């Protein structure tokens, strides 16, 4: 007889979706660190780095939002998957406004750009937490 182990938690998302989320968090965190570097040194190149990192984060976040919306199929919908999709969409929207803030002159983008970068990183981390720690909807047999 084969013994089966019943697992309490398993991510309901495809591993590619979780990989995209890791890229989103990394790119937005890099933008935050670039904003901190600009706030400390006033070197304009840090603001350019942040703008490019935000653009890359928005591309990956857009693909991840589409994956999260696909994950909202009625058979797989849980409270955590809905919260994940909403938080990821909020991350993309705030990230878009952050990109618009960074498109301004370097002097005009601070301190608003730094504040928006912090908000985007926090939203991305919480959305990733909901994706990775979502409870499994069925048992393993």
UniProtKB/TrEMBL annotation:
Residues 14-127 form the DUF2231 domain. The chain crosses the membrane at residues 16-37, 49-70, 82-101, 113-134. Keywords: Membrane, Transmembrane, Transmembrane helix. The keyword NAD does not apply. It comes from the Bacteria. The keyword Transmembrane applies. InterPro entries: DUF2231_TM (IPR019251), UCP029509 (IPR016923). This is Membrane protein. It comes from Luteimonas terricola.
